[in-house]
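Components:
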Amino acid sequence: MKDNAIPPPRRPGKILAVAWLILFLPACVLATRHTVCTACPLSGIQKAVETAAAGDTIIIREGVYKERGITVKKRLCLIGEGEAVIDGQGQGEILSVFAPGSEVRGLAFRNVGVSYTEDPAAIRLVRCEGCLVADNVLENTFFGIYLQQSEGCTVRGNRIVGRAKEEASSGNAIHIWKGERILVEGNYVSGHRDGIYFEFVDDSEIRGNTSEGNLRYGLHFMFSNRDVYEDNTFRDNGAGVAVMFSRQIRMLGNTFDHNWGGASYGILLKEISDGEMAYNTFRENTRGIYAEGANRLHIHHNEFVENGWALDVKGNCLDNRFEYNNFIANTFELTTNSRHNLNTYSNNYWGNYRGADLDRDGIGDVPYRPASLHALIIGKVPAASILLHSFFMEALDYAERIFPSLIPEQLVDEKPLMKPARHDTD
Amino acid sequence: MKKIISFVAGDILRNRTVLAYTAVLLLFSLGLFSLEPRPEKALLSLMNIVLVFVPLASIVFSTIHYYNSAEFMELVLAQPVARSRVLLVEFAGIALALVLAFLVGVGLPVLWHGAGTKGILLVLGGVMATVVFVALAFLGAVTFRDKAQGIGFALILWFFFALVFDALLLLVLYNFSEYPLERAVLVLTMLNPIDIARMMIITRMDAAALMGHSGAVFREFLAGAWGWVVAWLALLAWGAAPLAVAVRIFNRKDL
Amino acid sequence: MIRIESLAKSFGRNTALSEITLQLSAGQCIALIGPNGSGKTTLLKCILGLVKPSAGEVWVNGIPAAGNWGYREHIGYMPQVGRYPDQMKVRQVLELIRQIRGREAARHTDAGLIGAFGLEEVMSQRMHTLSGGTRQKVSATLAFLFDPPILILDEPTAGLDPVANELLKEKIRRQCERGKLIIITSHILSDLDDVATDVLFLQEGRMQFFKSLASLKEETREDRLSRVIARIMQREKP
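Structure:
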């Protein structure tokens, strides 16, 4: 029994976020309160914001408030009680916050305007530090929650559902541009262009969110370093998840589910390096991982189940390590466009492996070449996918594995596992 | 008519070869399902057996059976009955018996392991493959008077459809890869009954890869209703056309 | 009952039959004889519609054989080699042919041979368990079963034991007397002695002669068919 096993240290961002929470939450609870309701003397939110002093709390009672362009320039807590709905009536932005330490909680936002020059959002935080956006419900948004140049903010438990129809005329549900120490946690996002968008965001966390049915990416991630995303579910997004031009990203325990279509993948890894990708599940994606210019990643203990191509690793990827991954019932386990291999594969479980284990050490006696000739041919001649599982192609594939001539000869798992790796002990 | 077909089918079902065939299929199916913990994977392995072994067994057995029953057919044809009817009854009897053998050997295990729609599709594909290759066997058997030639023809047909056709298809694909080939390839595929059956099964089995790379044409055709209908009709034609030609030849030949 | 006019048949370059013109009538029991390959079986198959003539025509009871199959209800046929589906029971084989011949056939059947051959005992046995002789008995039974006016028997006595042989000959004789047309081929000419009324001799696809046995006997002054034929063959040779 190993009860005192030390869990991997991987949550610096969370601790920071909790610290921010403790610092600011009491402020809202203890502050002077202003109540807004449709029949109250204070019947408008903008009015209340103007009336309140910095550090005050505004309680917004149940009702529909047809307001837009609400601007907060001092530290305030906006808290909804019951069904407090702010209806932007499809014109412009609803709420913009320019004050550090502010909170927006428990409100409903609906009908944000569409503008390609201003990118209007339901809630925009500009140069905020330690702000909290939590438990809001956003409907029919262009952009949902938009953070720019902010630090130490938390976006938690929001539900953001858009009605995006085409990529070019839609915005993102949670859009973060330039930030540090941001925590995005437990949100549900769908019906936008990208579910969660990160650009120039460092040392942040994305945790326990569900992003599905977005037109382009469930998570779109660029030029952001030292971030962690963990336990999220990305399902049925147009292209899956893209993580690009970033370093030291840790991707743990996420589920990439059913990202299905001509150019879809579970995750696109493009020009990223020195990261870790572990304990994720890839299920029913056209491609599980599509890696292009990915370097020095440690990819281990992932489950690849029923994908078209579990791995599509282009020739410009190097020094990646694939270990203890389970490949189960994928049409193709691996394809590449190169005759060379600069990555290491070892101790993976390959469902298509047919070797024996006579010495009973749990490792197949014969090395395994996971690259498939047929997958390679399809890469060059897409129409050849019509020959999937044809007796002829399978025979050809089998022969090629024994005497490689087109697939990379060095692409070998010398220690293929006989049984799927157990992610808790192996 | 029904009674006659059931007599013929009953005779074949008691045939030792057919019993062995059923047992082998049963062994394969049960073996795969018990070795392979995932029914998906077992179905996929089973598909190759269904699409390679079943056509081979069907065409060779039917051919041999036709030649072996030539004398009895002669006796039957000396009765007041139309030739085409005799051939069709014989066809129906053999096809029915082999389909039943297949249903016991593969259908029952698939149902038993609850393989769902995909399993049903596989069984359907196997049934169609059986019928088509029995029809092809009849075409060969009525064409060649000599038994050895007939069996040779059956083997060549099987080899062509199971292996050579796909090799040629790949060759065409490779040489014309500059052109948009999807539509042409779909048409070409209809020329091979094994390929049609295979496509119909895999589109519902692991379409991920097919959907992935091959562009809108495959996707539309394979996932859509009309492609489904066209594929089924093509498969039915593959059963009906050889049989019709066989009847025509049989009606004119000397026995 | 059967009329054949300038019938010819060739398989590729081989001529099997040429210029056969015949009229066969009720009450005749015709011994169709000739050396191997003389076209005996081809002629029978032409009558049965199993072989399509190259030229000429065959009528059975006024119905042309070409393009018809219904006329075969007037014919009972016993093939030279009786091979049956291995796993069928004797009863099933009889039932199968009855089904094929249709409801009309079932009305007037002649099950006499079943009893005579003692086939009741093997009714539930499968065909492949039967001896060659028993199978031959089944074939003979099938030919007579539906009481057809015409019987075509191709080597009927081959493989039969002496008792069955006599039974069958007796059957043929009586059927002939009842006014049926019977055509028999056999290599064992002594078997034909007791039953034949007429002799049709084929050689190399041509009809050498078609005469009544009585007139032939008179002509050659022999009383055994084998001797009659031998005498004629000698006479033919220069």
